[in-house]
Each structure stands twice: as structure tokens, then as C-alpha cells.
Design goal:
This protein is of the alpha+beta class and about 725 residues long. It has 26 helices and 18 strands. The protein folds into three domains: about 140 residues, Cysteine proteinases (Cathepsin B, Chain A); about 300 residues, ABC transporter type 1, transmembrane domain (ABC transporter transmembrane region fold); about 240 residues, P-loop containing nucleotide triphosphate hydrolases (Rossmann fold). The strands form four sheets. Strands 1-6-2-3-4-5 form a six-stranded antiparallel sheet. It has a six-stranded mixed sheet with strand order 12-15-16-9-17-18, sandwiched between helices. A hairpin with a 6-residue loop joins strand 2 and strand 3. Helix 10 packs antiparallel against helix 14.
């Protein structure tokens, strides 16, 4: 991936002497504590010819508290592109085509069965020194973990949307849910039949002898109904939790996998709205609609029973169902228009709210808070009016639905009374029929009421499908393609960049050829394109025109994620995430050990500043840490984070921002150490930094020019302390 040698923590089997025939890869104990399953992870990677790098493995086992269990092992393998299936009861013997598998015997270390390059079946036991020929493929009754390499996902098909494919994954559970719903529908007939028997047998016959038996049967039916209702609720709860997990993880994975230009064009409120769309879908498909949708087909069984006991009375619920369908068709267009209006007004409201929250300090300093509050109030009022219109229409639809239910009940009573008077139907049958009618019309009314929200759900589905249909930088599950060793030569050929089609170019026809190991100082006015140049070299922004090459290869040929692993970058404005100081440092290199982190912190002097924090490197940084921590500490943290990544190309964007004199001296020493070992781009205005550079570039209005170093030193004034940070 880069020209630096692997660090000392990347050792076979944690550093033990292992014959070269089979050396399971492993991480240091402070990254992945050792047990038999941790050894199995390394053994699986070796046996299957995994081509990843140390950092990939470290990132595949995040947030593991202690040594991994079987769930942690499976999650790590999934993150590395493997598919697994756990079998609690394995066959007595295995076929070679079943390999590789992990045997999980009780009270004994796990073992890996695999086929080596010569086609020989081998067995590696955790804690062993080598992989022995398997001899036999007996499992010994152990639990079994089947492993297969994950294939790259097929090409996206427009006809198969994300939400459709996600819901299709739960089709195997549909028969069980329908069976439970059918049993509930049949058991719900117990009360109507009990009532009919009481009126027609006990009351008409003036006897109570059969009553205990009828009551006992009813109690049994009600008990079974409670059991099946609980089973269905548990199944729906599990499906809902699974959908919630899949949707939320897929959303954030997609947002993080999209090219930077796509996500930066959307505001924070728009990103939050995308996540909220998925929550709406989950609630719709696993809440009341799911219950009603499962009950609706089973209502046909109740209608057949109603025909048997009530005859023409069954016409009443059928007429109500037809009226509900006609009403849905009539109001659908109006609901669609009102939902579209709400989407536009809510987006405007959320965007203004996001701007206010992001600029709170500026609004207070300028006294503009009341102006922006009034602006937000106008947009909130527009959104509230749009939502109220939807509510009014929904209320009217609900009122009409209730009227249809009432009219249907009246019609059923009228038909039933006529049948009772004509002696074609008993009074008990009429009462039972009315009970069944309410059982039928309940799910029908629920489906109709929820279908009135269908346009809102369709809007959320379209938003979700559009997000998931965007082309990410790298398809999930695709094989890792490390960049390999690079020298650090950087070539730009007539590169132009526009962030938006109508915007002025950030870079305009930039051509540049930098040799490996050179230090380049980049100067120029604010907004001249300096940061854009660094981001383009990293591949975070794709040029509108021209090409960027590293070691003579167009960077479009590289996996963009792997390319950025080969480049160290320190932004002008350091960003901190919620977590400890150590966790924020390890963002640059998840595989770095604590010793390596401390060594980098000592080089930049960060260790002395962190020692003054309450818990040192384990001090947890809050959401607003970047606003309250000293600028000098932030600058050193950003520089340390960049140095933690062993890279052949290092990009430093205004690294002296906020540094005091001691910090500037530390920065100079770091630059001196990097010179010659890595190709170094430093955006700076300081003559002391420019004096170290092999070349000096100036960017103004996106146009690049090379400046003689002596001229650059004499023409660039030394900024007062803190001025560089203010200019950025």
C-alpha cells in the first residue's frame, strides 16, 4: 500500500515462531486480545489467500471488548467480505467441497479444516504450531461454522429497488405469519359461535346443562388465541428490529461510501431527512399496516363463515369493502399533491433550522438572531399549514370511513332482521353474524385508513431508493484491492475542478509534476484553490477535466478508499469525533499500537499537553470539543494523526494554524523528518516553511504558477500569531 515496511505488530501468530508453511495473520494483543477464535480469524485469512493489509483487519474488529466470541468472529469475517453459516449439529463427516469450515468442539480449542494450494485437506488447531494433513474429515460432533468468500454484488437493476429487495428478504417468514393470522381468524369465531349457541340452544331450550362445556371450550379457544397472537407479535417485533438494523446500517454505509461531492451538495437537514425516511418505512411496514395486511386475507375466511351462518347478511361487508376502495381512488390525487407540498415546505424549514444551529455563535455576535428566528418561524408555519391540510383530508377520509362502517352495520341489521322474521335465520345466528361483521370490517377499515398515508410512504420509498441507487466509490462486499507499494510521484495534467456546474472553477488547467520525496510549499490567497488541490490529489474530488497520476498511474484505476489509505492528510481545521483522545488519533491508522501512538505524540509534543487532561489519552472529547480545546492542542492532534499513518505522500493543509512558537518548532522538526522519506505538500504562508521546500507553488483563482523560492520568501509576509487561522 505504501513504501513503508510493515510495523512490528504485524507478526505471524502474534510473534511466535511458526513454520512458513502456515502462518496465521494476527494483530497485537492490545488491538485484538488472543483466544482460539482470534487465532481462527487469522488462520481463515491465511488459508483463503486474503490479500488485505493490516489496517483492513484492524478495522474489521472494531469495538471488541475483550477476546472475540463466535458472534464477534462472524461479524469480523462479514466485514472482510466473507459469508458464514453456523450449524449447531454438524454431519459426522465432511466432503472436501464443504471446506473451509471451523470446528467448534466443547471444552477444546477451535480447529480449521481447509484445502491448501496442493489440494490437500489440512487441519489447523488453535494453539498449534502448524497445519497438519487432516487425515479424515470427521467432525466429532462439534458445532460447525461454514465459510465462503463473499462475491461482489451484482449490477444494480432499476426494476429491483432497495426497499423491494429488503422486504423480499423476509418472504420466508410470510407463511408462518399468515398461518398465525389464519389461526387467529378461526379462533376469533369462538365468541360468535358461543353466543349463537347460548341464544339458540340454552335460551331457546331454557336449559343450562351444556353451559359449563361451552364455557370450557371458549376458554380453551381464547387461550390458544392469546398464544398465537403472542407468536405473531414476537415475529413482527423481530422482523421490525431486523429491518430497522438493516435500513439504518445501509443508510449510513451508503452515505459514507458516496463520493464526497454528492454528500457535500446536500445540507445536514437533507441528510437527516434521508435517515428519517427509513424510520417512516420501518414503522409503516412493521406496525399497524403489517397487522392489518395479515388480517385482510384471512377476513375472506370470515366472510365465508358469514355466508354460512348469515346468508345475505354477508353482502353488507362486501359492499363496505367496495365503498372503501372507491373512496381511496377518489382521494388519492388530492393526498399526493398535499404530501408533495409538505415535503417541499418541511425541507425548507429543516434547512433554515440547520443553518441557525450551525451558526449560533455568529448570529449572537451580530445580533441577527431575531431575524433568523422570524425566518424559521415563517418556514415552520408553511410546513405546519401543509401538514394541517393533510390532517384535514385524513380526518375527512376517516370520518367517511366510519360512516361507511356504520351504514354497513345498519344494512346488516336490516337484512338480518328481515331474515329472522322470515324464519330463514335464528336470532342467535343474527347476533353471531354481527360479531363476525365487526371482525371483518375492522381490518378492512384499518387497511383503508393506513392506505390514506400511502402517498407519504411512497415519497419515503422513492427517497430511500434514490439514495441507495447512487453509485458508491466502492461496492459493498467487493474484493479489497490494495494500492501496493508507491514511490510518491504525483503528476497533474491540465486538471480543472468545479464543485457545481454554475460555480467558478476551483482549479483551472493545473499541470504539475512532483518527484518522489520532494517537498512542495503551496501558497496563495484564501479561496485560491489550495485545499482543492490537496483533495483532488487524494481523490476526494474527481476532476472535471484532466488527469491525476501517482507513480504514472491514473488514480481512477485505484480503489479510492485504498488510495486514501496510502496518503496522510492533516486538514486546516481539525475535526474531532465523540470519543477519547486516543480514539481520535487512531482514526488515521486503526492498526497502530499504543506504543506507536505514544511515539508519534512525543514527536509532536502532544503527549505533554494531553498529560494535563483529566484522564490523559483516555479523556473523552464531547461534541463541542473543537470549540473549547486550545488551538495549539488541536493543531498538534491533527499533525500527530497524520504522522500515525505510514504513507509515501503527506498532505498538510495550513499545519501551523493555532500553533504557538513551541508548536511551530515541533512542526519544523516533523517536516524535516518527513523530507526525503515522503512526498510532502504543505499549504503555508510562513517563510520558515517555504525555506524548507524544494519547490514553491502559488494558486490564485484556481490557476497554478511556480514561484522561485527566494522570491516567495521575500514576497510573503510573516503573519502575526494566529493570523493564519483567521485567514482560513
Amino acid at each position: 500500500m505504501n513504501a513503508m515496511p510493515p510495523p512490528d505488530w504485524w507478526a505471524p501468530d502474534g510473534g511466535r515462531a511458526v513454520p512458513p508453511a502456515f502462518a496465521p495473520v494476527a494483530l497485537a494483543e492490545d488491538i485484538l486480545p488472543r483466544n482460539d477464535l482470534a487465532e481462527m480469524l487469522g488462520a481463515i485469512l491465511t488459508a483463503t489467500g486474503w490479500a488485505g493489509q493490516p489496517e483492513h483487519l484492524a478495522e474489521a474488529v472494531p469495538h471488541m471488548a475483550g477476546a472475540p466470541d463466535i458472534t464477534g468472529l462472524r461479524n469480523a469475517l462479514a466485514n472482510l467480505g466473507y459469508s458464514t453459516r453456523l450449524e449447531g449439529r454438524a454431519p459426522t463427516t465432511l466432503h472436501p467441497d464443504d471446506l473451509p469450515v471451523v470446528l467448534l468442539p466443547r471444552r477444546r480449542p477451535a480447529a480449521l479444516l481447509y484445502i491448501d494450494a496442493t489440494g490437500t485437506a489440512r487441519r489447523f488447531v488453535a494453539g498449534g504450531s502448524d497445519a497438519e494433513p487432516a487425515g479424515s474429515l470427521a467432525t466429532g460432533g462439534a458445532a460447525l461454522l461454514r465459510i465462503s468468500r463473499g462475491e461482489a454484488p451484482p449490477q444494480r437493476q432499476a426494476r429491483d429497488s432497495f426497499t423491494t429487495s429488503l422486504l423480499r428478504r423476509f418472504r420466508p417468514a410470510l407463511p408462518a405469519l399468515l398461518l398465525a393470522s389464519l389461526m387467529l381468524a378461526l379462533l376469533s369465531l369462538a365468541v360468535p359461535f358461543f353466543t349463537m349457541a347460548v341464544f339458540d340452544m340454552l335460551v331457546a331450550g331454557r336449559t343450562i346443562q351444556p353451559l359449563p362445556m361451552l364455557v370450557s371450550g371458549l376458554c380453551v379457544a381464547l387461550a390458544f388465541e392469546a398464544v398465537f397472537r403472542g407468536i405473531r407479535m414476537r415475529m413482527l417485533a423481530r422482523i421490525g428490529a431486523r429491518i430497522d438494523s438493516l435500513m439504518s446500517s445501509a443508510t449510513f454505509e451508503q452515505l459514507l461510501a458516496l463520493p464526497l461531492a454528492m454528500t457535500e451538495r446536500a445540507s445536514l437537514s437533507a441528510q437527516v431527512a434521508r435517515v428519517r425516511d427509513f424510520s417512516t418505512l420501518r414503522e409503516f411496514f412493521t406496525g399497524s399496516l403489517a397487522m392489518a395486511a395479515l388480517d385482510a386475507p384471512c377476513a375472506l375466511v370470515l366472510v365465508l363463515v358469514l355466508v354460512l351462518i348469515g346468508g345475505p347478511v354477508a353482502l353488507a361487508p362486501l359492499g363496505a369493502a367496495m365503498a372503501f376502495g372507491l373512496l381511496f381512488v377518489l382521494v388519492r390525487g388530492a393526498m399526493r399533491r398535499r404530501v408533495a407540498t409538505l415535503a417541499v415546505t418541511a425541507q425548507a424549514r429543516d434547512q433554515v433550522s440547520g443553518e441557525i444551529l450551525a451558526s449560533m455563535r455568529l448570529l449572537r455576535a451580530t445580533g441577527s438572531g431575531s431575524i433568523w428566528a422570524a425566518r424559521q418561524a415563517r418556514h415552520a408555519a408553511d410546513a405546519a399549514i401543509a401538514a394541517a391540510r393533510i390532517g384535514v383530508l385524513g380526518g375527512a377520509v376517516a370520518a367517511l370511513g366510519q360512516a361507511i362502517i356504520g351504514l354497513s352495520a345498519l344494512a346488516a341489521i336490516a337484512i338480518g332482521v328481515h331474515a329472522v322474521l322470515a324464519a330463514t335465520m335464528t336470532a342467535g345466528a343474527l347476533i353471531a353474524a354481527m360479531m363476525v361483521i365487526w371482525r371483518v370490517l375492522g381490518p378492512v377499515q384499518m387497511v383503508f385508513t393506513l392506505l390514506s398515508r400511502w402517498e407519504q410512504v411512497r415519497t419515503s420509498m422513492r427517497q430511500a431508493d434514490q439514495l441507495m441507487a447512487m453509485q458508491p466509490e466502492r461496492e459493498r462486499g467487493s474484493a479489497v484491492r490494495p494500492v501496493g507499494v508507491i514511490r510518491g510521484e504525483v503528476t497533474l495534467s491540465r486538471v480543472s475542478l468545479r464543485y457545481l456546474p454554475q460555480a467558478e472553477p476551483a482549479l483551472l488547467g493545473v499541470s504539475l509534476d512532483v518527484k518522489a520525496g520532494q517537498m512542495v510549499a503551496v501558497t496563495g490567497p484564501s479561496g485560491g484553490g489550495k485545499t482543492s488541490l490537496l483533495l483532488t490529489i487524494m481523490g476526494l474530488h474527481r476532476p472535471t477535466a484532466g488527469t491525476v497520476r501517482i507513480d504514472g498511474f491514473d488514480i481512477r484505476r485505484f480503489d479510492p478508499l485504498e488510495l486514501r489509505r496510502a496518503i496522510a492528510y492533516a486538514p486546516a481545521l481539525p475535526r474531532l469525533l465523540y470519543g477519547t483522545v486516543a480514539q481520535n488519533l487512531l482514526l488515521a491508522n486503526r492498526a497502530a499500537t499504543r506504543a506507536e501512538m505514544l511515539a508519534a505524540a512525543k514527536l509532536t509534543g502532544l503527549d505533554r499537553m494531553v498529560a494535563m487532561l483529566p484522564e490523559g489519552f483516555e479523556t473523552r472529547l464531547r461534541d463541542n470539543a473543537a470549540a473549547v480545546l486550545p488551538a495549539s492542542l488541536l493543531g498538534r492532534l491533527s499533525l500527530t494523526r497524520a504522522l500515525l499513518r505510514p504513507a509515501s505522500i503527506v498532505l498538510l493543509d495550513e499545519p501551523a494554524n493555532g500553533l504557538d512558537d513551541d508548536g511551530s518548532a515541533v512542526l519544523m522538526r516533523a517536516i524535516e523528518q518527513l523530507r526525503g522519506r515522503a512526498t510532502l505538500f504543505v499549504v503555508t504562508h510562513r517563510p520558515s516553511h517555504i525555506a524548507l521546500a524544494d519547490r514553491v507553488l502559488r494558486l490564485d483563482g484556481g490557476e497554478l504558477s511556480e514561484v522561485p523560492r527566494k522570491l516567495a520568501q521575500s514576497s510573503v509576509p510573516i503573519l502575526p500569531q494566529g493570523a493564519a487561522a483567521q485567514r482560513s
